[in-house]
Amino acid sequence: MIPIPIVVCVMGGWCAVYLTDTLIKTSTSVRHRYETWLSSNGLTLSPFHVRWQTGLFNRLFARCASLNPHFLHVWFSVGMVFGVVAMFGSVVLLSRTLHQTLKQMTSEAPEGSHEQVLQVVVPGVNLPVSQLAYFFIAILVSGVIHEFGHGVAALREQVRLNGFGIFVFVVYPGAFVDLFTTHLNLISPIQQLRIFCAGVWHNFMLCVAALCFLLLLPLLLFPFYYTGAGAFVTDVVEGSPSSGPRGLFVGDLVTSLEDCAVRGVDDWHSCIRQLSQQPQTGYCAKSSNLHISWAAGRAYKRLDGTMECCSNNSLTDLCFSYHSNQEGRMYACLPARKTMESSRTCKTNADCQLPGEGVGAAPSLCMVPSLENQTRLIRVRHPPQQDMLFVGYPSHLQYSVSLTNFVPRLGFLHLDLPVLLETFCKYLVSLSGALAVVNAVPCFALDGQWMLTSFLEAALGRLVPERSSRELLGFCILLGGSALLAANVALGLWMVTAR
Question: Between 336 and which of 119, 255, 318, 472 could a Cys-Cys bridge form, CB atoms 3.0 to 4.6 Å apart?
């Protein structure tokens, strides 16, 4: 379900705006001045929609359209080819996404949602509130670049640009260009196709540029930040298992989880996933450290069937199991930190036997923590501080700490700058790419409608002389594309909000 506070804020805000607009327009004393002010500033208000249009940027568009005519002709011609390919490719992608969504709906435990290329995004549901600024700015930037492509391409083809504008629909921002329709209808279908494909082409190139910037970010920030040394802690959730006097702190550098080396954030997630899927790691300890009173008659079963041998009040001791050749599996309540300190990890007793160990020396045993199902004891190394010992579900460790690959070389450098740039680039890649795909769909009211119409005119103008036949074919394709997109959006929303 969509969080009620978000719905109330959005609905309340729009109701207040629309009510104020209505009250002012009903007032005879200020109505004329108010409407004149709206018109002079290019503002239009309607329920859940506000739009601003201006001609201030027309000169900028014209200047860009006059730069290197040959290059721009090749640029938009390549964009035209890309747009046609994207139009057909988007249908294939949406069909595959719809098939995956239907498959998840019929399964009891949908596990493949992360594999989908396209997903419906609802702020406050599957988009964290803390990420809303990235999301809306990335949408606005993607929309502006999209419409910039249309505007420059139109001026290149001698189509007049009336103005450029920005709008907000419910909570989603966007942009648009107003083209002179008469000029647009007079040019050839190929010229029209260059204009209509320019938007998705520019979104694709913005996606590529953001991806390149993301990949080159370590190199660009190298004079100020270095990478590859570990995962740098930028935030710890207060009250989480990772906080506390012997927990993690902002500025710590995590270098390993048990024997799994951590060189960056990806390694952090990979190591946690690996430790959660594998059996609990054991630790080598001398058998001489075990007292008889610890081993016998103290163990009892928990409700989940696992064994416990320590007092519930103990905050430092843990129950360990080990295998004795004489008595089989035994249990001992041991101080966790002392047992694990400077200990090698193991799976069996054989892993603890050193080649040079004397015959009379006390043998080392593999002590495996006896914990509840799915929980783990994980040793987190973050030198020079003492190792953090985490007991609990690995996912709690994973999401209670915010990390980055970038370690500042100087103390005054901001810890969040690389994270900000990295996160914004990721949103720009995903949202600009999604905007290119969705706008290329042959669907009513999207760029795909005009791309399809121009494509059919250019490709079938001679093969199908009757204009009505081409229009009928285009209508059928648009109907199918609209139904496909609507099904993806509707089922995607249901999957996000209902589950």
Answer: 318
Question: Annotated catalytic, 35?
Answer: no
> For strand 172-179 and strand 225-226, is the pairing parallel, antiparallel, or unpaired?
unpaired
Q: How far apart are CA 147 and CA 151, in angstroms?
A: 6
* pLDDT tens profile 334-389: 888 888 887 889 988 888 887 766 555 667 889 999 888 889 999 999 999 999 99
Q: 388: burial class by Cβ within 10 Å (0-12, 13-18, 19+)?
A: buried
Nearest 5°: phi and psi at 17?
Answer: -65, -50
Catalytic residue among 111, 147, 341, 422: 147
Closest residue by Cα to residue 236 from 215, 222, 251, 224? 251
Does pTM surpass 0.70?
A: yes
At 130, list the tokens: 């803390």
Cβ atoms 118, 488 nearer than 8 A: yes
Q: pLDDT-derived band of residue 296, with 50, 70 and 90 as boundaries?
A: very low
Q: Tell me the backbone φ, ψ of residue 299, rounded to 5 degrees.
A: -80, 145
For residues 140, 144, 146 and 148, what is the CA-based torsion angle, rounded to 10 degrees?
180
- Classify the phi-psi angles of 42: left when phi > 0, otherwise alpha if psi is within -120 to 50, otherwise beta: left
Confidence check: pLDDT of 295 > 70: no
Beta bridge partners of 46: 49
Q: Which two tokens stand for residue 187?
A: 């040019």
Give the 3-state secondary structure of residue 438.
Answer: helix
Q: How far apart are CA 157 and CA 48, in angstroms?
A: 35
Q: What percent of the chain has pLDDT over 90?
A: 64
The token pair that represents 377 in the structure block = 């004891």
Q: Which of 280, 447, 296 lies closest to 367, judged by CA?
A: 280
Burial class (CB in 10 A: 0-12, 13-18, 19+), 389: middle
Q: What is the pLDDT of residue 301?
A: 84
Radius of gyration of the chain from its Cα atoms, rounded to whole angstroms: 31
Distance CA 385, CA 239 (A): 20
Instruction: Residue 458: name the closest of 111, 159, 193 by CA.
Output: 193
Q: What is the mean pLDDT of residues 202-209?
A: 98
Q: CA 37: distance to chain centroid?
A: 41
Closest by CA position to 127, among listed 489, 427, 358: 427
Q: For 221-296, where are the alpha helices, taking DSSP H only? A: 265-277, 292-295
DSSP 264: S
* The pLDDT of residue 332: 86
pLDDT at 147 over 80: yes
Cβ contact 94:73 at 8 Å: no
CA distance 490 to 492: 5
Q: What residue type is assigned to position 282 of the chain?
A: G
